Amino acid sequence: MVKTIRVPEEYHRWLASHKRDDETMGETLRRLTHTPPPAEPIISDKQATETRDAIEKLRKSDRNRLTRVAERFWS
């Protein structure tokens, strides 16, 4: 899907002046902002799984710590 964005005329001229002959304006924006194309994953599936696992481990640790504090407080 293609989206249209409004930019000031001077910005459009600046962007167009940096556009290479073989690229679209979107590709120029990605190149100048150093971002990957949307279809390109930022991290691998393995890294995503490891990250999710680490977050869950931290959440469990926090819940356990809060439970221990609450038990001491209410005892």
SSE layout:
Blueprint: H1 9-18, H2 25-33, H3 45-74
Brief sketch in words of this structure:
Helices cover 65% and strands 0% of the residues. With 75 residues, it is mainly α.
How would you portray this structure in words?
This protein is mainly alpha-helical. Helices cover 65% and strands 0% of the residues. The chain has three helices and no strands. It has helices spanning 9-18, 25-33, 45-74. The N and C termini lie far apart (60 Å). 0% of the residues are buried.
Structural descriptors:
75 residues; mainly alpha; Arc Repressor Mutant; 2 domains; 3 helices
Largest sheet: none
State the separation between the terminal residues, measured CA to CA.
60 Å
User: Regarding CATH, which class of the largest domain?
Assistant: Mainly Alpha
Q: Give the count of helical stretches.
A: 3
Q: Could you name the CATH topology of the largest domain?
A: Arc Repressor Mutant
Q: Tell me the strand percentage band.
A: under 5%
Low-confidence stretches: none
What value does the average pLDDT take? 89
Q: Strand-and-helix sequence, N→C?
A: HHH
Number of domains: 2
Structural class: mainly alpha
What percentage of residues falls in helices of 4 or more residues? 55-70%
Radius of gyration: 24 Å
**Oligomer designation:** single chain
Shape: elongated
